[in-house]
Amino acid sequence: MTSMTVELPEALTAEIEEAVNARWFSSESEAIRAAVHEFVKRGKLALIERQQLDAIEWAVGSAKKLP
Fold first, then answer.
1. Residue 31: count of CB within 10 angstroms of its CB
2. Which of 3, 23, 25, 48 qualifies as a cystine partner to 30, CB 3.0-4.6 A?
3. In whole angstroms, how large is the CA radius of gyration of the chain?
4. Pick from 44, 26, 32: which is nearest to 3 by CA?
5. In whole angstroms, what is the distance from residue 65 CA to residue 67 CA?
6. What is the DSSP code string of 14-62?
7. 26: number of CA atoms within 13 Å, CB side?
8. pLDDT beyond 80 at 66
9. Which run of H or of E encompasses 11?
């Protein structure tokens, strides 16, 4: 595993600490890993959705050009 150093706003740090104190996560590191994982997953899903919508738009446009 690779380590990274990040600077977070105090309000976000407090939210992470609160989640750990509520035992949603076992550590701040686990909470941040989960957040980054979710961010990456949602980004991939958004990209796939955009590609599918572009393909549909292209197909509809192509169909309109048919005689």
1. 18
2. 25
3. 20
4. 32
5. 7
6. HHHHHHHHTTSSSSHHHHHHHHHHHHHHHHHHHHHHHHHHHHHHHHHHH
7. 0
8. no
9. helix 10-21
Looking at residue 50, its amino acid is R
Helix (H, G, I), strand (E, B) or coil at 67: coil
Residue 30 corresponds to which tokens in the numbers above? 């686990």
pLDDT in tens, 14-54: 999 999 999 999 999 999 999 999 988 988 888 888 899 88
Tell me the two tokens of residue 8.
Answer: 């977070």
Q: Would you say how long the chain is, in residues?
A: 67
User: Are 26 and 20 in contact, with CB atoms under 8 Å apart?
Assistant: yes
